[in-house]
Amino acid sequence: MSVPLLSVKNLNVDFRTRSGTVKVLNDVSFSLAKGEILGIVGESGSGKSVLSYALMGLLDDNAAITADRVEFGGIDLAGPTSPLASIRGRELSMIFQSPRTALNPIMRVGRQIEDVLRRHGPVSRANAKAAAIAALARVRIPDPERRYAAYPFELSGGMCQRVMIAMALSCSPSLLIADEPTTGLDVTTQAVVMDLIRDLVQETRMSAILITHDLALAGEYCDRIVVMHAGHIVEVAPASELQSHFAHPYTKGLFAATPTAETELEHLASIPGSLPDLRGELPPCRFLYRCDRRQPDCQTAPIPLRPIGGDHSVRCRHPL
Amino acid sequence: MSAPSSPLVEIHGLSKHYPVGTFRRKMLHAVDQVDLTIAESECIGLVGESGCGKSTLARVLARLIDPTEGGIRLSGVEVGKMPAKAFGGSPLRRDIQVVFQDPTESLNPGFTVFQAIADPLKRLVGGPGREIADRVLAALDDVGLPREYGSRYPHQLSGGQKARVGIARAIAVNPKLLVLDEPTSALDVSVQSLILNLLSKLQKQRNMSYLFVSHDLNVVRLLCDKVAVMYLGRIVEFGPSKSVYFNPRHPYTQALIDAIPDPERKNSARTKLEGSASSPIDPNPNACRFAGRCPVELPVCTQAMPPLTPGGDGNLVACHRAAEGDPS
């Protein structure tokens, strides 16, 4: 494998709160190749959004972030001299869920794209406007000259998400992080937005991280999938491999709970229990109390994410 | 064969129009000429994109808002003409209850779980406090919430627990029809599966009818006997869930199904629905609402509105192409 675009090793994030330290991310390690779409899947509270915020350097001051290595395109982002502030938005950009709230409601969308362009280098007004219109055209917004002057409330949800994507891509980043980009959109709009993201990734050879709770969506659009549970990466595998040979009991539970064309209601299972409280002492396997395969040795030593053949890794002593 | 169960709800020619524009002279057709029958203990799904009028139809049917025209018969009694306020004070209010979309938004943050469930009981059923308390506890048992949760406030509950409170509040007064407006859209898959199974169990136990509103055909298919597909205020396809899902006749239904994420598809093509629906404001009465976005449009589609006609398998479909025996 060639040198990865992004390589993260042993990333930990703790939040200091009044009711104790919350260990939100623990020992998160993964890498992302150039041109790859990586899915990060898990229930709400699994830490997938915190992971993306940590990568973007957008977490609050009460977050304590430690990592052995966060390397992005040969640049060290973990050290004290991290140039994150200058590359964020240019090399590394992000789109958020609920595009309507992420956009400034009282600013024309074209101007919001210009803002990003002007933040990252001297560019004349006229050039910025031309670039903003080109960015809108690139995300296949019909009539971009007219939409340039639109306010977010004049656009539909799917259109707002396209504006977000246009903004994120305006400086041709090498990595796009999409945090639940289609939550709250209709299935039909979801399909159009996801097809657009995939096409743009292929056109520009950038990489993307898709954060979602929908395994089927990740399965369709991602090359590889990372499954997160309670701040741990529990399984990583190529999408098709995960589909057919999932090894972690949590991944199995997620698949069993996701309706497909073949499912009948009686067979739609759920995962017992809920996420553990991340304050205080946690067992080495954070899925322990929800797992039907647990053995006494699941509670003893730390369980590493270990390869089980090919590109497939799992954090479980007794995988399926 | 047993006699067909009598209809619980019959709606006929139901429309809801909102005046819009500077002089309020234009009309937004949120729901347009909808006929729908819900039998006793039948579960009907209502699917469509946002803005298609499915929530408006659910709210008119639940008599939270007044229809512009058309009739709603509930157990044979015409309630469509009754103003929403009067309906709220009538004994029929008990018979239709609603479970709202966002469990966080739809619970009063100042009410405990007990108070939230007791409130409709006090208003609609009445009786001594002891009886009401017993009914609240029974409702908690029915939705699988521990009784001690009665003293908790919404912020102390998880999303799934709040969804259960919303269901408990709605079923406590023993309604005949439960209108469910996207009850699982804010929940994780694992919790969604619990709630769907709970709803299915309750429906069988209590012989309730459901109107299940959702944009997710995959979920609707699991719970519902029949599905109505709505597009821009009109029902474009109606039929048994399996038939609509596996053998759709309307090109819009086909597009909805094709849009469901499918890991098997992986990069292969599908019917894509570009653009957005045309405006619901004063739509052309002599054209199919789907025209302009339809992948298999015919010249006739912009000249006449296709009526909802039988299309085999007990399905009804409003499409010129399907009527010619050439869906696809």
First-to-last CA distance of chain A: 27 Å
DSSP strand content of chain B? 15-25%
Structural class of chain A: alpha/beta
Using only C-alpha atoms, the radius of gyration of chain A works out to 20 Å
Indicate the structural class of chain B: alpha/beta
Number of strands of chain A: 13
Helix segment tally of chain A: 11
- The number of domains of chain A is 2
Q: Give the strand line-up of the largest sheet of chain A.
A: 7-8-9-3-10-11-13-12
| End-to-end distance of chain B | 35 Å
Largest interface: A-B, 43 and 40 residues
CATH topology of the largest domain in chain A: Rossmann fold
How large is the count of helical segments of chain B? Answer: 10
Major sheet attributes of chain B: 8 strands, mixed
Pattern of helices and strands of chain B: EEEHEEHEHHHEHEHEEHHEEH
> Which regions of chain B have little confidence, pLDDT < 50, spanning 5+ residues?
none
Provide structural commentary.
The complex is a heterodimer of chains A (320) and B (328). With 320 residues, chain A is of the alpha/beta class. Chain A folds into 2 domains: 6-91 and 173-314, 3-Layer(aba) Sandwich (Rossmann fold), CATH 3.40.50; 92-172, no CATH class. Helices cover 31% and strands 22% of the residues of chain A. In chain A, strands 7-8-9-3-10-11-13-12 form an 8-stranded mixed sheet, sandwiched between helices. In chain A, strands 1, 2, 4, 5 and 6 form a 5-stranded antiparallel sheet that branches. In chain A, β10 (224-229) and β11 form a beta hairpin. In chain A, α4 (109-119) runs parallel beside α7, α5 (125-138) packs across α7 and α7 runs parallel beside α8. Chain A is globular and about 70 Å long. In chain A, 45% of the residues are buried. Chain B is of the alpha/beta class. Chain B has 10 helices and 12 strands. In chain B, the strands form 2 sheets. Chain B has an 8-stranded mixed sheet, with helices on both faces. In chain B, strands 2-1-4-5 form a 4-stranded antiparallel sheet. In chain B, a hairpin with a 2-residue loop joins β4 and β5 (77-78). In chain B, α3 (113-124) crosses α4 (129-142) and α4 crosses α5. The longest helix of chain B is centred in the middle third of the chain and has 18 residues, at 189-206. Chain B is globular. The model of chain B has no long low-confidence stretch (mean pLDDT 89). The A-B interface holds A 43-44, 142, 156-159, 186-192, 194-195, 198, 213-217, 219-221, 239-240, 243, 253-254, 257-261, 263-265, 268-271, 274 and B 49-50, 158-159, 188-194, 196-197, 200, 215-219, 221-223, 245, 255-256, 258-263, 265-267, 270, 272-276.
